[in-house]
């Protein structure tokens, strides 16, 4: 490649780790190339100043192929710091859960433009949600759906009867007669899981609350199903 001509990608920073004396490894979920890691010569900027490499920052990366496996990040043009997310610890935690879902399922060169669009949308919605963790839970479910490992419908996957109480196991929800094992959900929890899986618009889930218990159950469900 000619010197000075850089490749470009749009992406959201997921994490930045110090590397060497002043460099860093920047993990970015990109629109075109999936989850990528870049080496940046300059680490996070001076104290008190918001670094462009802060997690959840959206922007345009200019990079060139490195000699090793890591591409060299030359420039990062910030288009959105998502500042409202940084105003609350709960929002930051919820956004970190979404980043974690991507980290566990996505990889370099695995393009996932639909998931990228969804991630950007959820980051935008996060500050307006009554409970940011509801969005994080929805993102877990939609990521599983995107990966083709979630098969939840309003009816039991086993017998076809409408789901009330149910058990979550290996990407599916079964009624208490069909399931042998799994995480048990109350009827209202089942309804919320269905809503968070199938919701198409923000207004459908904006006011929903999720209990810490259900959030934890869905995180486990995600981990067991995607590992
Ligand atoms: Zn059944």
TrEMBL record:
Q: Which UniProt keywords apply?
A: DNA damage, DNA recombination, DNA repair
Query: Per its UniProt entry, which superkingdom is the organism in?
Result: Bacteria
InterPro entries noted in UniProt: ARFGAP/RecO, DNA_rep/recomb_RecO_N, NA-bd_OB-fold, RecO, RecO_C
Q: Kindly give the Pfam families that the UniProt entry links to this protein.
A: RecO_C, RecO_N
Could you tell me the Gene Ontology terms of the biological process aspect for this record?
DNA recombination; double-strand break repair
**Residue ranges constituting the DNA replication/recombination mediator RecO N-terminal domain according to the UniProt record:** 7-79
A single Gene Ontology CC annotation of this entry is: bacterial nucleoid
Which residues does UniProt call coiled coil? none
Keyword DNA repair assigned: yes
Q: Residue span of the signal peptide, if any? A: none
Does Nucleus show up as a keyword for this record? no
| Family, similarity comment | Belongs to the RecO family.
For this protein, the record's PANTHER family field holds:
DNA REPAIR PROTEIN RECO
Q: Which HAMAP family match?
A: RecO (MF_00201)
Function field: Involved in DNA repair and RecF pathway recombination.
Q: What is this protein called?
A: DNA repair protein RecO
Species annotation: Estrella lausannensis
Give the gene that encodes this protein: recO
